[in-house]
Design goal:
By secondary structure, the protein is of the alpha+beta class. The protein has two domains: about 140 residues, Beta Barrel (OB fold (Dihydrolipoamide Acetyltransferase, E2P)); about 260 residues, 2-Layer Sandwich (BirA Bifunctional Protein, domain 2), CATH 3.30.930. Helix content is about 35%, strand content about 25%. The chain has 16 helices and 18 strands. An eight-stranded mixed sheet has the order 6-10-11-18-17-16-15-14, with helices on both faces. Strands 1-2-3-5-4 form a five-stranded mixed beta barrel. Helix 14 runs antiparallel to helix 15. The two termini are about 15 Å apart.
Length: about 500
């Protein structure tokens, strides 16, 4: 009811402005300054110094606060860089401008120009000599303009969240910076940035359930990609020996504080490298980003200090199951005992699951959340690694690592399987799992096998979850806090 009353008052003001011939949405405002530049350049100047300035300043932004004293007022204007106080006085403005100002509301976007001075409380302030309305806000800002706190409303109406909560804007400014730093690092190491298809005839490159769509003109089913891996490795085969891509992946899975069906990944591939080389490369990349952002390698995430100082811990899957999950070597070696252990741990498994898949279910349930400091988990079972190269020392394992920080997987990497015969066998095993009901298992991809038959050089590749990395580096508890428009269940307005 209160919102309806406020809306009614605003509509009355709009009618009055229109009747006076005021353009509610002009398109010729050209502010010459931003709040941060004014504060940086003149924030240290005293009143006498400001009084000697002959230049005029102009700002445009959203009206965030009004303290009115009848014939004068102090207001706060917020642009993309911050806020600055402005002084509005009837004896300075033209009659028309002051009349327009009296009909303005918090949330309106305005243009002001004038000189700088300091108030009695020593606050740097722009004394307005002219005021223009540049866009009328019909709806009031939320929470009586004191900030948006309802978490669901914040995600659903991110524009209001950004207006009301400066800290949210800072998260996305840092997100942009982190991605720029990643590109800078990759370019410095001679990687070529590429783009590969978002719609693919087969869903491959990861173990995940895809989104399915249909192309009418071709009368062909397509899948939103779950990973760019198989296309990037085609490029490696074609001679682009170092490639990377930062782009969206789509997985038809549940939503949680660290899962969103649409998310950003970086995948990169380097010929003549191994998964062990990528461990050092990842340490170097993360350390570079941390130094640029924090000026150091240690920072706090959700109350816990995280230290990125290399070298990071290396821990084999089986060693982790013994040391952290509490399994015995005998339980790992005996499939029946492993199944019993998994069920007692609360894992959702089937007796027909391969032993390696059962062990990884226990790992996910009992180990993952306890890996707080950066840890490379290595030596994964072949059963859960259909695209990874087999270990030379144990054919049941692959040359692979996953990076865990603060109990979450941040990256996944391996030495690539480039033997087409072995790859065909892995795909065939995945097909059996699909036939048994696993709709996340790989399909047979004959075109990719044909690519490998032309010869792919020995290569290592890695995928880094950009959203999870940004969560870590912005102290954000939920993935929704670092995605501008996270997927939410539709609701009736």
């Amino acid at each position: 009811m209160e919102d309806n009353d406020l809306l009614k008052v605003r509509l009355e003001k709009i009618a009055a402005l229109k009747a006076a011939g005021t353009d509610l949405y002009p398109n010729d405002a050209k502010p010459q300054n931003t709040t941060d530049r004014i504060l940086q350049e003149y924030g240290g100047m005293d009143s006498d110094g400001l009084a000697k300035l002959t230049q005029k300043f102009s700002l445009a932004g959203r009206l965030m606060a009004i303290r009115s004293f009848g014939k004068a007022a102090f207001v706060k204007i917020q642009d993309r860089k911050g806020q600055l106080q402005c002084y509005i006085a009837k004896n300075i403005l033209s009659e028309q401008d002051f009349s327009i100002f009296k009909k303005l509301d918090i949330g309106d976007i305005i243009y002001v120009s004038g000189k700088l001075f300091r108030t009695k409380t020593n606050e740097l302030t722009l004394e307005a000599e002219s005021v223009r309305l540049t866009a009328k806000s019909i709806r009031p800002l939320p929470e009586k303009w004191h900030g948006l706190t309802d978490i669901e409303t914040r995600y659903r109406q991110r524009h209001l969240d950004l207006i009301s909560n400066p800290a949210v804007k800072e998260i996305f400014i840092r997100r942009s910076l982190i991605i720029r730093l990643i590109r800078q690092f990759m370019d410095r190491h001679d990687f070529l940035e590429v783009e590969t298809p978002m719609m693919q005839p087969k869903a491959g490159g990861a173990v995940a359930r895809p989104f399915k769509t249909h192309h009418n003109a071709l009368d062909q089913d397509l899948y939103l990609r779950i990973a760019p891996e198989l296309y990037l490795k085609r490029l490696v085969t074609g001679g682009l020996e170092r490639v990377y891509e930062i782009n969206r992946n789509f997985r038809n899975e549940g939503i949680s504080t660290f899962h969103n069906p649409e998310f950003t990944m970086m995948e990169f591939y380097a010929s003549y490298a191994t998964y062990e080389d990528l461990m050092s490369f990842t340490e170097e990349l993360f350390a570079f980003i941390a130094r640029e952002i924090f000026g150091k390698l240690a920072f706090t995430y959700q109350g816990t200090e995280i230290d990125l100082t290399p070298p990071w811990r290396r821990l084999a899957v089986k060693d982790a199951l013994v040391e952290i999950a509490g399994m015995t070597p005998d339980e790992m070696a005996d499939p029946a005992k492993a199944i019993d252990f998994a069920r007692n741990a609360g894992c959702d498994i089937k007796e027909t699951d391969p032993p390696g898949k059962i062990l990884m279910a226990i790992f996910d349930e009992r180990v993952e959340k306890k890996l707080i400091q950066p840890t490379f988990v290595t030596h994964y079972p072949v059963a859960v690694s259909p695209l990874s190269r087999r270990s030379n020392t144990d054919p049941d394992l692959v040359d692979r690592f996953e990076l865990y920080i603060s109990g979450r997987e941040i990256a996944n990497a391996f030495s690539e399987l480039n033997d087409p015969a072995d790859q065909r066998e892995r795909f065939a095993a995945q097909l059996k799992e699909r036939e048994a009901g696993d709709d996340e298992a790989h399909e047979m991809d004959e075109d990719y096998i044909r690519t490998l038959e032309y010869g792919m050089p020995p290569t290592a590749g890695e995928g880094i979850g950009i959203d999870r990395l940004i969560m870590l580096l912005t102290d954000s508890a939920s993935i929704r806090d670092v995605i501008l428009f996270p997927l939410l269940r539709s609701r009736t307005e």
